[in-house]
Design brief:
Number of strands: 12
Structural class: alpha/beta
Strand content: 15-25%
Number of helices: 8
């Protein structure tokens, strides 16, 4: 049995009890424990960590701690490269794709609205989420810390906000995605790609007033859902504009 001193930095403090935030504290450990075990015993998922310094030296997750070690733990640097120091995880997924847990259905729709390839199903197991994340190289977004502690998950993020609009802003800000926005290119329902469609091809599926007042349509290449700039579009456009133009990317709370 040994004991080390550890401190977590920046947003990693979100996972700690109030008394442990922004301060160094002691953690006992048993023989055979790794630094990854100790980090996760503090309730911090390994997917949130990108750099660990022990006595000022960078280490990987398999480091065997020694009695009296002083440990500093830093969050994921998704926006810039710290490879010359040590990257604990595989390289950032620059082809940004997501898979979301069952609690984030509204967020899935908003990410699709912004143009991001986003997998979501409201009845899927944690094991299946982890599999999809790894095999399809998708960032796993979740409100369940336990999923992110699964050893096979390499790219994941715990969403702090509870309001869907703020969740979307948080994700865009966290992964520095404003330069990757491609709004109105994906189906909010199924994630398929949208393509322009002649009005004549969808005329039999339109309501009388829609036939009368609208002439430009898009259709999902997967589920065939039809889209046009109806009365709801102004709220969607306002949301997209706020995300695209705001330095803080935190649009005001509202519903669509």
């Amino acid at each position: 049995m040994g004991c080390l001193r550890i401190r977590f930095y920046a947003e990693l403090n979100d996972f700690l009890t109030p008394k442990r935030r922004q301060v160094e504290f002691g953690v006992p450990f048993a023989a055979g424990a790794t630094i990854k075990d100790i980090v996760e015993s503090c309730n911090v998922p390994h997917t949130e960590v990108d750099l660990i310094l022990v006595n000022g030296r960078s280490v990987d997750f398999e480091y065997a701690p020694q009695d009296g070690d002083r440990v500093s733990v830093y969050p994921v640097f998704e926006s810039f490269d710290i490879t010359p120091v040590v990257h604990l995880r595989p390289a950032p997924l620059r082809e940004t794709k997501f898979v979301l847990d069952v609690h984030l259905g509204k967020l899935a729709g908003l990410l699709r609205l912004l143009g991001f390839d986003t997998v979501y199903c409201n009845s899927v197991t944690d094991a299946e989420l982890a599999r999809v994340s790894v095999e399809e190289r998708r960032i796993l977004l979740t409100r369940d810390r336990g999923i992110l502690k699964r050893s096979r998950v390499t790219h994941g993020y715990y969403v702090r906000e509870s309001n869907p609009r703020r969740q979307a802003a948080e994700v865009v800000r966290r992964f520095d995605l404003r330069g990757q926005l491609k709004p109105y290119t994906r189906c909010m329902r199924c994630n398929g790609l949208l393509q322009p469609t002649p009005k004549a091809e969808v005329l039999d599926r339109l309501e009388p007033l829609t036939k009368l007042y609208y002439n430009e349509f898009h259709q999902c290449t997967s589920c065939r859902q039809v889209y046009w700039q109806g009365s709801h579009f102004e709220a969607l456009r306002q949301f997209v504009d706020e995300i695209a133009n705001s330095q803080t990317a935190s649009p005001a709370e509202s519903t669509f």
